[in-house]
Amino acid sequence: MSQSVATAVADPLKVHPEDFPDIQGFILHGYNMPKSRHFVLTIGQVEAALDFLTALTSGSGALSITSAERWPHSQKPEYALNIGLTARGLEALKLPAASLKINQGNFSSFLAGAVAAAKTVGDVGPNDPAGWVPKLNTANADRAHMLLSLYTNTAEDRETYATQLREMFVQVIPPAGAPGSDVLEWDVDPYIVTDPVTGERYRKIHFGYTDGISNPIIDEVGLLPPRPNQLPYVPAWQFVTRDGAMTTYNLPEPLEFGQNGTFSAFRILEQDVVAFDAFLAADGRDEAAQEYLAGKLCGRWRNANPTVLRPDAPGDMLPDIQLTDFDYGTDTVGQPCPFSSHTRRTNPRGGPLVVSDKVDNRIMRRADAYGPHYDGTDDGKPRGLAGHFMCAMLSNQFEFIMSQWVDSGTFPGLKAQAGIDPLLGNVPDGSSFTYWKSGEPVTVGGFSRFVTTKGGLYCFIPSITAIKWMAQNGGDSNPWIVPPMPS
Amino acid sequence: MATTPVQNALTAIIPIKAEFVDQLRSQLANNPINPSGLDAVGTVHFARIFVFAPNNASGVPSNLAAVITSYDFDFAAYIQAFVNQPSVSAFFDSFLMAVDDPAAAGLVPVTKNAAGFAALVQKYDNTNPANSWGQWYSAYPGLSVQNILHPTPTATTS
């Protein structure tokens, strides 16, 4: 990319094509590559880490960071690679305190880390960070410094490029046996089904729902005007760190570091599919009744059709634009889409009774299913969803959704209607859920959480320029340190 | 009806620089926050903002401003939505310049410093629910502004 793009103040409202080479690819575009592996490692040797960053951005290494540049002829490469750094990771790079400024008020969540945010986002009780995977848990979180996300088209390529990546970072991590020498490697293998008629391929999460339907669309030069019922495009600054009068944060400094990045809540969420299926089948529900309840719990039928458009039964899968271009209209009672349903909780679409407009508080999800496909047999194997939930301000976007919409029942209505997102929330034992059937509200109860947090990590996803800046300026004798958090 | 309280109270008594007292009093009288901005927030039940009058019977110094409100949900979580309203941010940008606190002016523009603004206001909050002194009463503690504006029917249990 040209030097002028990296050092000039970018448009806060729109992403321009000339920005693409500076922005990590998965912020703007989902790769739709079916195999991925996330690596979490500790920076044990600063100079080696700086060399690693240089290799990832100079083309001198076996692998390079993937930017948002369009792929020629839309031909996918064999791999894509992206990188994030925790606040402790930035500290470990010994970046210069004289120039690095990260506003504590705006980015306190990132600076304090995912473990500190546990209470805010519902990671309490069985979700408590003490019980997370060892690399990320309470005892070790301060040594989780760098997250590398590798995406490939085939399992063979994943092994090939993972091997090369390990060879690149082997000098970065502490020596074998030292604290932090372990590397977390987490594979993600979405279950993909092919429509026998159209040949289209869809991802399914373990609960059986079609996945990957709706993400915010960041405003970008050249986009067509929004369709009549399409959600508005989201201004760039909400997902790509930019400076401007309208932003809700002070851009981290210097510009080379702060601009064109984003933040990510990396999550590992274990799904109890056996318990979910048992709940659906309880009270003697037949198959049709189970599907009805499953649709209402999610706000989408398992074929992805929104219940607000198909209130009584799934029907044939709607065209793509109808899967995304809808709103909750004047529905103030949760019919046909319950207020507690997962899709309504995580994206209320500016519906009535919700304190938000249509573009505030959104997150960009780059997560997929891990673990073996569930075939209805209780095999005892862990399975769930893992990946990135990205946004420019974790407190206003990711944490707001989790605390105010998913977990705390601040939606209006009856307690059951206003309760907790049944598919994602930290649902207490004996919870209830209200939906409508045949014109009457019905409450079903006696369920508990179906999802348990097994890992979390807050990362800064820097621009390509920022990675180069860190590589060139790390190892400073007066290093930046994570500021103490107010008690 | 939900019984868990969703409402909270704020009683912030905030020092104002002497040279800004008359200006702030005038602003509150002539150019207060546009109510449509507070309507758009959707979580504020009631709000009163005033500067204590000179020589008031209570003997409260007239360089103190009061921000007294009943609101829904978590103060810090919704402060950004609050200051994102242009009429709200315009008022508090001006208000902060008048506040006699070394941190206040650095919080302008308030839209970019919502967390710091929340911390400043809470610093001067005398409601102090954490220590549970005094009394707070609501006839409908489980109802949010939105519940009241848009009541919902009763569910049956299957």
Describe the structure.
The complex is a heterodimer of chains A (487) and B (158). In chain A, 22% of the residues lie in helices and 18% in strands. Chain A is built from 14 helices and 13 strands. In chain A, strand 6 (201-204) and strand 7 (210-211) form a beta hairpin. The mean pLDDT of chain A is 92. Chain A has two domains: 3-267 and 455-473, no CATH class; 269-356 and 392-454, no CATH class. Chain A is of the alpha+beta class. Chain B has a single domain (7-126), classed as Alpha-Beta Plaits (2-Layer Sandwich), CATH 3.30.70.100. Chain B is globular. With 158 residues, chain B is an alpha+beta fold. In chain B, 34% of the residues lie in helices and 18% in strands. A three-stranded antiparallel beta sheet of chain B has the order 1-3-2, covered by helices on one side. Chain B starts with 6 loop residues before the first strand and ends with a strand. At the A-B interface, helix 13 and strand 12 of A face helix 3, helix 5 and strand 4 of B. Strand 12 (440-447) of chain A pairs parallel with strand 4 of chain B.
